[in-house]
Amino acid sequence: MFSITPSEKTIIDIGANLTHESFGNDFEDVINRAHQANVSHMIITGSDIEDSEKAIALASGNTDLFSATAGIHPHHADQYTEDTKATLDNLLKLDIVKAVGETGLDFFRDISPREKQIESFRAHLELAEKTGKPLFLHQRDSHETFLSVLKEHRDRVGLVVVHCFTDTAEALSDYLELDCYIGITGWICDERRGAHLLDCVGNIPLNRLMIETDAPYLMPRSLRPKPKTRRNEPCNLPLVLDALASVRPESSAKLAIATTENARRFFSL
C-alpha cells in the first residue's frame, strides 16, 4: 500500500463504502486507480456495527490514506439497541474514527421502520454530543422530520455534514442555515435525476462544500468511455469536481484545494 503526499492537486473522498464486497477481489487496484486520480485520502463509511468494525480495521492498516466513521445507517436502524449504542460509544473513542455515522433518516426505501430510524438517529446525535466528534448524516425523502430532529440537538453537537446531498434548494438552504457542511456525489452528474443540483450547488459557501463518491454506488453518468460495470470507485471523484466547476465561479483546481481543506478541517485529518 502507499500514501499520497497532499498538494494543491489532491482531493479527499469523504464517503466511500470500501468494505463493500464488490471491492474484495481487486482492492489494491482500486486504490492504485484512486492514487492516479490524485485522491489523497478516503473516509471509509461505517453503516452498521460489523461494517464499522471492518472500516476501522481497513483504515488502521494505512492511516495516511484512510480514516473511518462508525454508525448505523437508517436502513439498518432496526438493529439499534442500547447494546449497539454502547458498542458505538467504544468505537468512537478510537482516533481512527473521525465521525459519528452514517446515520439519519431514509423514508424513500423505509427498509427499517420510521420510528426505529428516528430512535437510532437520536441516539447517534447523543453520541456526537458526548464524544464531540462530527456527524456524518444521511437524508432521503425525510427532510421535514430529519430537520426537526437535527434542530433539537444542533446547539449541542459540533460539525455536521449532510452527505450525498440530493434534495431541493429549499432543503439545502435549511441545512446551510444550521451551519452544516454539504457533501456532493456523482448524483450531480446524472442528467435524469441530478439536474436540479446544478441550479443550487452554487449557493453552497465554498468553506462548507465537500465531495465524495459514495462508492460503489452513484457512478457518475458523465464517465467516458461508459464502463462495463456499474461499480463506482474513488478514482471517479474528479468528475464530481468538474461538474461543480461547471456551475460555480471557482475552477476545478480551486475547488480541489477548498474541498480538501474543508475535509481536513472537518475530519481533523
Summarize the structure.
The chain is of the alpha/beta class and 269 residues long. 36% of the residues lie in helices and 16% in strands.
Write the layout of secondary structure elements.
Blueprint: E1 11-16, H1 27-36, E2 39-44, H2 49-60, E3 66-70, H3 82-91, E4 97-106, H4 114-131, E5 135-140, H5 143-153, E6 160-162, H6 169-177, E7 181-184, H7 195-198, E8 209-211, H8 237-245, H9 252-266
Parallel strand pairs: 1-2, 2-3, 3-4, 4-5, 5-6, 6-7, 7-8
Helix pairs in contact: 4-5
Structural description of this entry:
The protein is α/β, with parallel strands linked by helices and 269 residues long. The protein has one domain (11-266): Metal-dependent hydrolases (TIM Barrel, Alpha-Beta Barrel). 36% of the residues lie in helices and 16% in strands. It contains 9 helices and 8 strands. It has helices at 27-36, 49-60, 82-91, 114-131, 143-153, 169-177, 195-198, 237-245, 252-266, and strands at 11-16, 39-44, 66-70, 97-106, 135-140, 160-162, 181-184, 209-211. Strands 1-2-3-4-5-6-7-8 form an 8-stranded parallel β-sheet. Helix 3 (82-91) links the parallel strand 3 (66-70) and strand 4. Helix 4 runs parallel beside helix 5 (143-153). The longest helix is centred in the middle third of the chain and has 18 residues, at 114-131. It is globular, with a radius of gyration of 17 Å.
